Structure to design on (530 residues):
């Protein structure tokens, strides 16, 4: 997906912490007292890593910081796995590398994909914006995405691919990342992967993009559960779980047709990612006076709407009961924002206060929030109308309308409400049921990435000398775009896969000391990375 201008709450306070985050603590010990543990020799068990193919989407490709660029591709989890596989008979592992580290993907005549994000000292910023702001020449982006690099790559990860895109003939024309290495204009991702005749494969994060577009759009798309015709689907729609299961079964069947073994991973709850959690929905912080004024404003809204309903013929008691939902009370300190919802018979004004579980999206305009977006925009006309009410007068129809119109709820595109979150969860749960069942039936190793991300969000995950969590910028696991992993995060993912291989195929990467040291991999890349 493409993420454009992003603003962040409170990141300037993290400056000092950023450079030091996740650094291991200094340990003072006498090396003479350290006993060397004797480990068993590394073995592949029953797995054959001689020809390894990775099938997936953005995570598989190594997408990070809102872009695909060479440095993170070289630290993609499939490449990290291939490095370990090489120790036990694994062969060469090739990837369709970008030509530089800008992340920009230049088409004709304009960029198709923006430059990567960098940390500029106060928050994430696009690389090209950073160079322009510092009066530096902007590095040229990768050119001509239509240029075909050949199709014999071991990494068949295609950023943006949904499950059914893997079997869709001609997908290369719709996705320039696949267009760079598709075997033909009518090829499918699955056929190109199967043509590698892999002895071992990974199949991961398939299903993530099937809900991600819906989530990042704030649920503007459609939940297509029950619709089996993918030709009806838009980019922001949720894929029907039955369609997903059928496609996933087809992919596994073709990848295992020649006897290949492999690993599949389930789909994390994407709403655990900082794109959906970094901006708290209770960030409307008020002093006592402002809280009282807002409470009074919504009492005025309730009174005005009560009179509107009575004028339309509603019994006074019924009018008061219906209008009372808008008498929102604010307190000193943190308060939840107001959100727009569909107008219904039970909520005719179409707004309410957010509930605890509902989420704001990372790109929401912070300046707008500070100016009343998510609560009330108090213009001079509105203040005048409120003054009439406070003086015991009766506002004109225009003044009453101005008060009602001053409510500025969060738009659908900037938030996920309870119904939208339930659609995402239901689809994800059913995808994961299918993934685990199909993996079990095929005798494949299984990685529960959903649980890994949940642990990272709640308590953090400790690996080696590092504790990683899902905090934006400082957490170490998730990159600056709030969705994709850092290179260190991909190392964590690779280790989870190696452990699953050990458990299923009798290898001993973990016991032999051949898991990755996640500290060897960065959490961010400098603007000047060549």
């Amino acid at each position: 997906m493409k993420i454009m201008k992003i603003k962040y709450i409170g990141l300037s306070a993290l400056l000092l912490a950023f450079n030091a985050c996740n650094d291991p603590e200094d340990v003072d010990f006498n090396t003479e007292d350290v006993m060397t543990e004797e480990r068993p020799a590394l073995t592949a068990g029953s797995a054959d890593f001689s020809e390894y193919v990775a099938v997936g989407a953005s995570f598989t490709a190594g997408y990070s910081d809102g872009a695909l660029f060479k440095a993170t591709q070289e630290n993609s989890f499939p490449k990290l796995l291939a490095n370990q596989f090489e120790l036990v008979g694994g062969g060469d592992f090739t990837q369709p590398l970008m030509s530089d580290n800008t992340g920009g993907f230049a088409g004709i005549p304009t960029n198709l994909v923006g430059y990567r994000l960098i940390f500029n000292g106060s928050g994430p910023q696009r690389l090209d914006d950073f160079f322009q702001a510092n009066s530096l020449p902007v590095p040229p982006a990768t050119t001509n995405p239509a240029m075909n690099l050949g199709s014999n790559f071991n990494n068949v990860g295609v950023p943006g691919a949904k499950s059914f895109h893997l079997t869709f003939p001609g997908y290369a024309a719709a996705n320039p990342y696949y267009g760079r290495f598709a075997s033909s204009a009518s090829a499918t991702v699955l056929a190109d992967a199967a043509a590698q005749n892999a002895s071992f494969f990974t199949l991961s994060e398939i299903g993530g993009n099937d809900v991600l577009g819906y989530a990042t759009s704030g649920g503007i798309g459609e939940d297509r559960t029950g619709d089996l015709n993918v030709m009806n689907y838009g980019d922001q729609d949720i894929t029907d779980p039955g369609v997903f299961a059928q496609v996933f079964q087809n992919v596994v069947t073709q990848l295992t047709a020649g006897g290949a073994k492999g690993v599949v991973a389930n789909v994390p709850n994407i709403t655990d990612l900082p794109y959906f959690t970094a901006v708290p929905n209770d960030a409307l912080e008020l002093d006592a006076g402002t809280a009282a004024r807002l409470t009074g404003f919504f009492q005025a809204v309730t009174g005005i709407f009560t009179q509107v309903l009575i004028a339309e013929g509603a019994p006074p008691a019924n009018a008061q009961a219906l209008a009372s939902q808008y008498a929102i009370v604010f307190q000193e300190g943190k308060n939840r924002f107001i959100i727009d919802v569909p107008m219904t018979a039970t909520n005719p004004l179409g707004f309410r206060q957010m509930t605890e579980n509902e989420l704001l999206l990372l790109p929401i305009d912070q300046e707008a929030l500070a100016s009343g977006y998510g609560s009330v925009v108090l213009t001079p006309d509105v203040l005048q109308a409120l003054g009439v009410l406070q003086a015991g007068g009766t506002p004109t129809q225009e003044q009453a309308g101005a008060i009602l119109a001053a409510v500025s709820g969060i738009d659908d595109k900037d938030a996920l409400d309870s119904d939208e979150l339930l659609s995402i969860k239901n689809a994800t749960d059913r995808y994961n049921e299918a993934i685990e069942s199909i993996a079990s039936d095929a005798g494949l190793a299984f990685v529960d990435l959903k649980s890994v991300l949940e642990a990272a969000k709640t308590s953090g995950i400790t690996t080696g000398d590092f504790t990683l969590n899902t905090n934006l910028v400082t957490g170490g696991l998730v990159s600056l775009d709030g969705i994709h992993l850092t290179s260190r995060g991909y190392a964590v993912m690779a280790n989870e896969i190696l452990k699953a291989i050990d458990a299923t195929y009798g290898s001993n990467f973990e016991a032999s000391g051949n898991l990755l040291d996640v500290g060897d991999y960065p959490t961010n890349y400098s603007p000047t990375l060549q």
Summary: The first helix runs from residue 15 to 20.
